[in-house]
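Appendix B. Raw example, untouched.
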Amino acid sequence: MSEPTTPLMRQYTAIKKDHPSALLFFRLGDFYEMFFEDAVLAAKELQITLTSRNKEKGVAIPMCGVPFHAAEGYISKLIRRGYKVAICDQVEDARLAKKLVRREVTRVVTPGTAADSSLNAEDNNFLAAVVVLDGPATTGHSVGIEISKIRAGFAALDLSTGEFRATEFTGTDAERRIQDELEQLRPNELLYASTAPLFDKPESGGMGAPPVQGRQTVAPPAGRSSTAWALTPLDDWIFAPDHAIPLLENQFGVLSLEGFGLAGKSAAASAAGAILHYVRTTQRGSLDHVDRIGFYECQDAMVLDAVTVRNLELVEPLFSSADPGITLFRSLDATITPMGKRLLRAWMLRPSLDASEIRARLDAVEELKQQTLIRDELRQALRQRFPACVRHWRFRLRRDYKNCTA
């Protein structure tokens, strides 16, 4: 891209330099416009007309645009295909501007941070991160780590619900166990350190292939299913424990992460902190709903690989032409809210091995089965989406449950 000559294109170029990996939606009046390579790519992906703007040094500038009022639909389409979109808005009234209207990027939408109505209500939209640490808990990344000393951290956040979880693995099977987690959660975006990716052999199913714009299919090892997610490399320092852990403590308003089970789990905390850094960087809104994180041990749940899940027809029929209603999920699903559907799906894909947790779930089912009036009123409140009513009945159920078990 040559040096622009007009004030408008200089403004565009300066903003684009800050977001080189995203498609820049540049607000001009009632349209979001794209220029240069972004315009060529967007026109192809969105099937819209590619035009050109005034020539810069004798060369026409590729250009395309979408109406401001319909932009969300176009953005959703790009996000589903694995692209990132930086939305640049006019931040002052054009009538009051003395010269060029001031513009700023107000948010960056990525596959792992999208939270709009176009998302499937039954699926979580997870943003995941992986990180490798070696040696003592306070050290950071290292290239050429001795395999037996690997501590791999994994974290995932669903920004739409605030669900935040983390775990870590050690030893020679860290790669396999991370792959299992990715197959279970199916994140839409994966963050990793740019110079120290977890797996450096893409031909063997690793994740070290150079990232490009758009969704990528990561070839799995033999016997595993193919999975696709958007890869996002970040600077190494973002994953450093001394940067990531204070971020988490500040977000949750605590002096230590011990209460969340992350004490001494620096790899898991580093992955979680990298996610929080990324979300704060790309999203300009409040993150108050992300108020907790849970550390989990994989041995607490049965690991079902993607092939097993498919053969058992837990959530999808074995053949695409089959009726979706034949799956176990459809047979059991009587939930009302998207959150309920996601929870039921998560429980089916990761069956608990904790006897006390299983008994607690059965007790809760028995309680609601017996308390028909409370159950009907609760379902009605959920249908009407009255948060206050939901909180009321949640409290009442807890109180009644405590009374019946006292």
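End of appendix B.
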